[in-house]
Specification:
Strands 7-8-9-10-11-1-2-3-4-5-6-12 form a 12-stranded mixed beta sheet. It is globular, with a radius of gyration of 17 Å. Helix content is 17%, strand content 47%. It is α+β, with helices and mostly antiparallel strands and 212 residues long. It contains 3 helices and 12 strands, in the order ααββββββαββββββ. The chain has a single domain, classed as Lipoprotein localisation LolA/LolB/LppX (outer membrane lipoprotein receptor (LolB), chain A), CATH 2.50.20. The longest helix has 14 residues.
Length: 212
């Protein structure tokens, strides 16, 4: 589930590509450039995960605040907080908090790490111009450059033709899982206190803190 949470928030800000001279690369470059200029952003999304083999069919709502290396994200029973140095994963169901060094957390929601992964590990292809929630969107498919060592089979992004904003993402993993994420709200460059990104034990009475 930690990987699922990380993947969902990765989708909500997916800015992927490889060195290609194509229509899809031009669109992705614009998205990438716009995101890099943001000092902060906030996103809300609806997500669904399905896997026919396991019978999984789960829908949840999620949100995330981002400020440089700092993160505060929530999905279902999970909340992930990071001040750029330490990461705390709060699991409400177990009343547990897992603390680790941010630099050692491979499943961190660190935006810069995710952007670097996307830029270097995926190629892209323009699919078509379609519609989503009543507006025109570019549909772009992403494929891992090294599929044998990737968790993903295909990622499909739906990007607004009007303002180049990401509206939807569908991820297909190699184990047959299909994750669909619809962005419902996006705010950029809003003032956010740094205290938002530090775990406050007083807000989680009765939770056990487990340190790696």
């Amino acid at each position: 589930m930690k990987l699922f949470l990380s993947t969902l928030l990765f989708c909500s800000m997916a800015i992927c590509g490889n060195a290609q001279t194509s229509k899809s690369q031009t669109i992705l470059n614009t998205l990438f450039s716009s995101m890099k200029k943001m000092s902060t952003f906030y996103v809300e999304f609806n997500a669904n995960i399905k896997n026919a083999a396991t019978g999984a069919n789960q829908s949840e709502k999620g949100m995330g605040w981002y400020k440089g290396e700092k993160i505060y994200a929530n999905y279902g029973e999970f909340t992930q907080i990071s001040n750029g140095y330490k990461t705390w994963l709060v699991v409400n169901e177990d009343k547990s908090v897992y603390e680790s060094e941010a630099s050692d957390d491979e499943e961190s929601l660190n935006l810069k790490k995710l952007m670097t992964m996307c830029e270097s590990e995926f190629k892209n292809k323009y699919n078509k111009l379609s519609t989503f929630n009543g507006e025109n969107v570019h549909v772009i498919n992403l494929f891992p450059i090294d599929p044998e060592n990737s968790d993903y089979h295909t990622i499909t992004l739906y990007i607004s033709e009007k303002n180049n904003a990401l509206k939807k993402a569908i991820l297909k993993t190699n184990d047959g899982t299909i994750m669909s994420i619809n962005l419902t709200k996006f705010l950029s460059n809003k003032a956010i206190s740094d205290s938002k990104f530090t775990f406050d034990k007083a807000k989680y009475p009765g939770f056990a803190v487990i340190r790696d």
